[in-house]
Amino acid sequence: MTRAKFFIKGAISTRYISGMIGKHGENSGLGAHVIFLGQVRSDKKNKKVVKEIQYSVYAPMAEKEFQKIKDEAFERYPLHCLHIVHSTGKVGTGEISLAVMASAGHRKKTFEALKFIVEQIKKRVPIWKKEVYDDGSEVWIKH
What we know:
The protein is α+β, with helices and mostly antiparallel strands. The chain has helices at 14-22, 59-76, 107-124; strands at residues 7-9, 32-39, 44-45, 48-57, 79-92, 96-104, 127-133, 138-141. Strands 1, 2, 3, 4, 5, 6, 7 and 8 form an 8-stranded mixed sheet that branches.
């Protein structure tokens, strides 16, 4: 069994996302592919605007937690396939930092699975983020 790749340096490109989708286009038993894309927002805070987020991670711990979430999703939902990838390093506003794609036979369970997966990622995976503002200042964000 090959080990899943959960992290990518920098923003997640549309080409990468397209590759995830393209891997399953010919499986006629699948009726639903649901994709969540998390994008960096240009939030305004104290008269400053977010320019980018810098993501830091302790990969060995985070990869184990991603794998646990993935295993739990397959136990709870009738998924055929699941892709999870998160950015590390700098990601600018408007760019994608999290991509999750779940595939199954029917849409209802696929939507439910995707919601479960994204919520678990936010709660459990040790990923730290630092917001960088348009004036050059930086702030570590609490979850």
